[in-house]
Write a structure and sequence with these properties.
This protein is mainly α. It is built from five helices and no strands. The radius of gyration is 17 Å and the shape is elongated.
């Protein structure tokens, strides 16, 4: 797996920290929370997409796709959080309440679970691969 540079690693950590601060502030009903979470999700996803895997291990490639899916879900959660602040999607009130209002939490939870699972399993698979050599 391609290792990130020190700058990329720092940007990944800053993005993760911004997502944590933004989601926590949103729970505390801060109006600026979405504007902190969204750039954090963008930074985190961009830096994680820069990590590539060029090996032949099918399990690692499958888990890598799960990480990319979780990155996309982080971006969807950011979009829903921004839409939760203001209904910029132009939806009527019933549709907005049913599909957008506070549903960013569910998307964020699914993305975080995928991220934890895939990250842990990739580390194990790469360790197995290194032992075989």
């Amino acid at each position: 797996m391609r290792q990130l540079t020190k700058l990329e690693t720092m940007l990944l950590l800053v993005g993760g920290l911004l997502m944590v601060v933004g989601s926590g502030a949103s729970i505390l009903l801060q109006p600026w929370a979405a504007y902190v979470f969204a750039p954090g999700a963008l930074l985190f996803a961009a830096m994680q997409m820069r990590q590539t895997y060029h090996g032949q291990n099918f399990q690692v490639r499958r888990l890598r796709r799960m990480l990319l899916l979780s990155d996309a879900l982080f971006l969807v959660a950011a979009l829903l959080l921004l839409a939760n602040r203001t209904n910029f999607l132009g939806l009527d009130q019933l549709t907005y309440v049913r599909y957008v209002h506070n549903n960013w939490v569910v998307v964020l939870l699914v993305a975080a679970i995928l991220q934890l699972y895939a990250g842990h399993r990739i580390a194990n698979e790469l360790e197995k691969e290194a032992k075989k050599r």
